[in-house]
Every structure is written in C-alpha cells, then in structure tokens.
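Lab notes, practical 5.
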Amino acid sequence: MDSFFSHSSYMISVISLNFKRTDLAVRSFFQFTNQELSDVYQGLKGRDGLLGVVILSTCNRTEVHLHYNGLYTAGDVLKYLQTYKGTNIPLTQFDIIPNTEDAVQYIVEVGNGLHSMVCGDKQIMRQMKDAYIISQQNNCMSGVLERVSQAIFRSHKRIINETAYHSGSKSISYLAVDVIKKQLQDNNVAILVIGAGEITADLLKYFSSLKFTNVAIANRTPWKAEILAKKYNYTVAEYDFLPQILAQFRVVISCAAADQIINPAMLSGISNRLFIDLTTFRSITLADDNNLNRLITLDNFTRLKNLTNNDQLAAIDMVKHIISEETNVFLNWKKNRDHMNQRNQLL
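Output from the prediction step:
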C-alpha cells in the first residue's frame, strides 16, 4: 500500500488541540483512551487518500500527525474525530499546520519538549513513542511517518549528547511535588496518590528523591499499586474505601483517568485539604460553594513560574539547530523518494 500510494502529492500535516490555546474544560472532551484510539484507527484505515496517521493524546494536548493527499484532507479527519467523540469544538480552538516542512519541524520540536508546559518535559518523548507504537499496532503507520519518528529519536539522542538542554528537566509531576513542598513545608505530610500509571510513577520518584516519607498509593487494580509502593517503600491504600480514608490525608493527588473519583458528597466534614488533579477527566470535583479545600488542576500549572534553568535556556538555540538539521535530513530523504516514485510512475 505504501509504495502504491506514495508520490509527491502526499503531504504531512498536523492538527493540534493544546494547552497554550485551549482550556482544560475543552481539551477534556478531545482525549482518547487506548481503546478509543484503536477504534479510531480502524475507522480511518483504508480511507482513499489517507496513507498514515498517528494520534498523540496526553493531558496537555491531542495532536494528529497525517500523511495524506487532497482526496482525504485534514479537515475530513478532524470531522471524523469530532463525530466519534461527540464533540463540536470550534475550529478556531485547533492549530492546523498544513505544509510538510513546518509540520515535521513542529512534530520534532514537540517530541523534544519545546512546546510542553515544562521546557524539556521528560514525559513527552515516552508519550510520543507510545503514540507511534499504537499506530503501528493498528497498521496505520506509513513509511514516511516512520521516518518522522526516526527524526524525533535521532534529534533527542543528539540533544542529550551535545547540549545541556535536558539537565534538570522537569515534568508536570515535578510541578505538583514542588507545590506541595513549598506550600506545606512538611516532608512527613500524609499524601494519597490515586492511580498507578506513568504519572504516578513519576510522582513517586520525585517524592522519594525529596525525602517525603508518608505517601500511600490507591488503585482500582491493587497489584499495580503494590508494585509501585514496594519500589519506593511507600504504602498501599484501599481504593474501594476512598470515602472512608480521605480524612486521613492532607494532600490527595489523582492521576487516574476517570470522572469524579472524588466528589463533593465524599468530602462532607473534610476541610483544609489540598487536592491536585493531574488528569483531563475532572477526577476530583469540589462543591461550587467550597471554601474549605483547595483544588489545583492542570490549567493552574500553566500559570506557575517556568522552571527552566539557565543551562537549558542557553542550550535552546543549539536544540533548535539540531532539530532543523534532522528535519532537513528527513525532507531531503522524502524529496528523493518522491522523485523516485514519480520516475517509476512515468516508466
């Protein structure tokens, strides 16, 4: 299929709904679970004119990387995704990068954390890899998009080896831990983390390195919580008894992709608590008239001071130079490939 459809009329474009322009309340309607991604890929696969697609869905952005021609456009893909999710987000909320050169440059920049909430975000590269793997598993990865992924990984390796850009790089998890540290100034404060995925693992790593001693993990699947708790010498809390145990904790952090795990009815009589929701699912909700507890969401973190250090700032020009070089390597490869395909078609 790749060799048959690949010619110069095929282009790469990006559709992006991200935290820089769109509030969490909007982004939350356009998030995709792994099962939803499989459904979407199966629905898009085989569309005439669509050669490849990769969907990156994180707490801060949903992005679609397309390899296609004019027969099936970026607008068609966006319409399909909106219909699948039952949303009608105005097109003005999306960033659309229509031409190949700018799209590839942007994709590689995203993969290296230049567009993250935290500069040099340590989580985004893993998220990009996962997105490409899921596309491959659903047979929606074209050879050209595979080459884009290689440009991302090559540039990331070079940036680590040739610059100080990733020295001291942080993540959203670090911002959450930093807020707790600065506001409560107590390493023995009782903290409950709900969920046992990548964000939770990142949180526990920072809690451990900063010598927080009183941390518990609760998860719908207990054995996953037990693995993380054992690794960092923390404890496990009973997920099924959250309403009964919430009062035991001064800080509650949700990393679980589910709506209203904690709701106002569960907080009766509980006050002076700090809640942090690191999801797009509104997994923690407080009463509208709440004045007893405080909730911090992802949108609050966008207003926190950027934690970029001086070494990172000094390295950004070099990072952009490396990204441009690797982008040009890809573009030259694609140009030669397109010329070869055109010649073969003429023959």
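Observations recorded by the TA: Confidence is low (pLDDT under 50) at residues 1-8. The chain has 13 helices and ten strands.
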